[in-house]
Amino acid sequence: MALSKTERRQRIKNRIRKIVSGTENRPRLAVFRSNKEIYAQLIDDNTGATIAAASSRDKDISAKGNKTEIAAHVGKAIAEKALKAGIEKITFDRGGYLYHGRVKSLAEGAREGGLKF
Fold first, then answer.
1. Distance CA 32, CA 97 (A)
2. Can you tell me the distance from the alpha carbon of 66 to that of 17, in angstroms, rounded to the nearest whole number?
3. Beta bridge partner(s), residue 44
4. What is the mean pLDDT of residues 102-106?
5. pLDDT at 63 exceeding the cut of 90
6. What are the tens digits of pLDDT across the range 1-48?
7. Residue 60: pLDDT band by 50, 70, 90 thresholds?
8. Could you say which of 15, 21, 49, 65 is the most buried, measured as most Cβ atoms within 10 Å of its Cβ?
9. Taking residues 68-93, what's their average pLDDT?
10. Which of 55, 69, 77 lies closest to 102, judged by CA?
């Protein structure tokens, strides 16, 4: 029997998380994508703390445009919050999603905002 879509994504996510982890100096940018929204967090895996977070539900992010354009705004917002916290370098965790579409747009927005990964 074939895996369901969520089971397949969970396996890919676990495979990625074996390799990718965040530290205080270089936190992990974790992405979660639902059908309507997109969320991004900077996580220090040593302490288990979230350093900064941004999502398409935030009031300061304009909800104009399609979902890909909104994801780019979220990427710029998380980059702005990271730079305020003194973070320039991160590791990117795509969360089991393909690096395509909204996930790619968020990553490119974060790079435009000044993050390096």
1. 9
2. 30
3. 49
4. 97
5. no
6. 899 999 999 999 999 999 999 989 999 999 999 999 999 999 999 999
7. confident
8. 21
9. 96
10. 69
**What is the distance between the alpha carbons of residues 89 and 60, in angstroms, rounded to a whole number?**
24
- Write the CA distances from 47 to 2, 15, 21, 70, 115, integer angstroms: 37, 21, 11, 30, 22
- Please choose, from the candidates 85, 106, 89, 92, the residue with its C-alpha nearest in 3D space to the C-alpha of residue 39: 106
- Dihedral in degrees, nearest 10, Cα atoms 4, 6, 21, 30: 150
- pTM for the model stands at 0.92
Strands (E), 1-117: 28-33, 38-44, 49-55, 91-93
Half-sphere exposure of 25 (CA within 13 A, CB side): 0
Mapped onto helix, strand or coil, the DSSP state of residue 94 is coil
How far out from the chain centre does Cα 104 lie? Answer: 10
Q: In the 8-state DSSP scheme, what is residue 89?
A: B
Report whether 109 contacts 71 (CB < 8 A). yes
pLDDT of residue 64: 81
Q: Residue 12 CA to chain centroid, in angstroms? A: 16
